[in-house]
Amino acid sequence: MKKANGIVLDKPGKRDYRTPSSFRIIVLLETVSKILERLSALRLPSTARSLGLLHPNQCGSLAGLGCFDAVTTLTHEVRLLQAASFKVSTLFLDVKGGFDNVCANKLATIHTRGGVSAYLVAWIKSFLSKRQCRLIFQGAPKVFCPVAVGTPQGSPISPLLFVLYIASLHPTLPQGLAISYVDDLTITVGSDSVRSNIRALQYYFGSVQRQGADLGVAFSVPKTELIHWRTPKDRSDVSFAPIVINDMLFPPSQVVRWLGYWLTPTLHSSVHFPRRLALARASFTTIRQLSAAGKGLSSWCNRKLVFGAILPILTYGCDLFVPDAATLRKLNSFWHVVLRWTTNCFYTTALGALYRMASLPPISSICKHRRRAAAIRLVCAPWEFNPATARIPESVPTWDQGRSADDHRFLLQGSPKAVHLTSWLGPAVNSAKHLPLDSLCHEVSDLIEEIPILPLASTDLVVLPLSRIPTVTYQALRVPLLQSLLADWLDSSPPVSLSYPYGACLTPHAFTGLPRFICGRIHQMRSGASYLAAHVSWRNRDSSTLCPFCEEGDESFQHAILHCPAKAHPRLTHLSGVDDIGPDGPLWLSVPLLRGLAEYLYATRTGFPPTMLRIRANTATPEPGSGSDSA
After folding, report:
1. I need a labelling partner for 10 at 20 to 30 A (CA). Which of 314, 430, 523, 601 fits?
2. Could you give the CA distance from residue 557 to residue 524 in angstroms, rounded to a whole number?
């Protein structure tokens, strides 16, 4: 179980692939070995936390912690130090080849001194020692070679072992913060001047570098970045003071990408969301090739691709940043293109109907929901495990009232230079007057008021262990959270016409599992923008609205499905017993009836493009393959 295959993958975005550092080795391990590693990875974090082997500001490779927690903690401390009238600077560091430098003997010594059980120390030491690996690439000898140092990149427990290995590299700062995410470490300091910040950062980097050398860990100095933070209202001259590290000069950056967030000196979202939009457009360009107009994957599959692959890219970071009005218009414009591709609807479809057809809310509602969901997760998390939770105001009604010892809110008390900030429970004001975590708590003040009594009000929670109460509380609060998403959707979405009776829902419609072409007909006819004669648009405003099949009434959705006399026989064959196509009708919830509707549309060519119609009286029969869907 100690033999593994190493797959050599190139790192994206590298300028030169002639050096080994431009490649990453992903280790394929034995299945039984990975099961054992997963079991140990589930047990080790709780043991390490109870023994103090993890630093409180480590966020990577630990359950319940993510990039959002690390970036939110960083931005909160930056704004807090700025509110105390300090100049704030941050140094971004990257551990060089972190997973490859873990020494089994040193890690075992750390665990033994920390009080970890002897059997677990022996298991970890055995896991890291006497390993063999062979590299798999074109022309490789495929011979197993011994691996003396490092953890296999691809193992479930390797990131956790690395996090434990470098826990001692976090210095204690009197007016600052050291926080990390796996191998990305940041050091933030605040003082009366930028020059003092640079001297402090040089000192702390030297200290961390010496501690890392004792562990055999080095930093990739060329990847180091420096940023001098500013407030949006700061009118002083921009500081370009650089920092010198290992005889290398690093000027301050105007944009720093850290954990997928693009950070500017003023912490404005004007850079972050345009970058996310560009990434989402590139992803959509590839995904849309899987399903052209009228063919390809079903609308259900397309919606799943949008929800799982495009939306996370587009809205990443909206839990912390709020897009401005100009950026929001660009996000909405792209979102409308995605929804039209998903539903196969026309560009003339009303936006309110388009959102309901796709069962996806507007971007503004999604961003607000993501922020509220992130706030609920922070409030329900134990403060000992999450550095962001440990810094929310003490007046927030969390289930556990503990707070971090290195929170710098005390700097605002009694300081004549401190900026007056709005309380998290105050009136709705510009979020710039709140601290970042206070602003998050303010958005869910209507939900978190019940948190202290929630675990005691339900008899189902009495028998739960204490560690499970935060999880159950979070799941209970998700119900009103989804209800608030629907309410905000209806408030912010453009109004729909009275002829559109269908409501908003977050689950895809049952008919989206039908073939894409027929599903597109249904989407178009339900939305009021289709090839039916009664659905007049700017392109055919002067054309007749009479049904071309029977010429006895306007060809509306209701007429084409239920009342057209020319379609009586197909209706009796495929839609027997269907007399209502409204939102409360049984048609939209019954799979057999939806299949009958599809057969009916195929048989009568209802809602088809004009080039595909076969009406003896009005048009000639087109040749096979001459018609197409232009939706």
Report:
1. 314
2. 10
Buried b (16+ CB within 10 A) or exposed e, 157-173: bbbbbbbbbbbebbbeb
The answer to whether 241 and 198 are in contact (CB under 8 A) is yes
Q: What size, in residues, is the chain?
A: 631
Q: Cα dist. 6→37, 99, 114, 128, 408 in Å?
A: 18, 14, 33, 16, 46
Phi, psi of 323 (to 5 degrees): -70, 140
**458 vs 589, more confident:** 589
pLDDT score at 2: 87
Strand pairing category for 131-136 and 3-10 = parallel
Three-state SS for 342?
A: helix
Predicted pLDDT of residue 614: 53
> What is the DSSP secondary-structure string of 103-150?
-HHHHHHHHHHHT--HHHHHHHHHHHSSEEEEEESTT-----EEE-SS
Summary mean pLDDT of the chain = 87
Give the pTM: 0.88
Torsion sign across C-alpha atoms 364, 366, 367, 373: positive
Distance CA(278)–CA(284), nearest Å, equals 10
Q: What is d(CA 479, CA 469) in angstroms, rounded to the nearest whole number?
A: 16
pLDDT of residue 477: 79
Token reading at 136: 């798999």
Cα separation, 307 vs 522, whole angstroms: 21
* Of 331, 305, 307, 304, residue with least CA distance to 318: 331
| Nearest CA among 496, 409, 392, 500 for reference residue 448 | 392
Residue 319 has pLDDT above 90, yes or no: yes
Beta bridge mates, 487: none
Measured distance CA(206)–CA(212) in Å, rounded: 10
Q: Are 4 and 152 in contact (CB under 8 A)?
A: yes
Question: What is the mean pLDDT of the segment spanning 148-176?
Answer: 89
Pairing outcome for strands 87-96 and 23-28? unpaired
Q: Over 60: is that where the pLDDT of 620 sits?
A: no
